[in-house]
Write a structure and sequence with these properties.
single chain, mainly alpha, rod-shaped
């Protein structure tokens, strides 16, 4: 830490042991969890698209069957 009048503070002044300055580290567990959540969301979207696609095909097939059948006459 920089002291304007004296320059850099020693470990004793900062309350840390000398030579033991910790640098910021990345939080690997957080990053890993975020990647897992992104993969899961992507997978769910893909499944949803497939379900919608299949539903459209089934709907089109059922409409085609209705058109092929002759109307019921009393």
């Amino acid at each position: 830490m920089l002291n304007p009048t004296k320059g850099w503070k020693s470990g004793r002044e900062t309350g840390r042991p000398p030579g033991r300055c910790k640098l910021a580290r990345s939080n690997y567990q957080f990053v890993k969890r975020q990647k897992e959540l992104a993969r899961k969301k992507k997978r769910e979207k893909k499944i949803q698209r497939k379900l919608e696609k299949n539903a459209l095909k089934e709907e089109a097939a059922s409409e085609a069957e209705k058109e092929d059948e002759p109307p019921l006459s009393p």
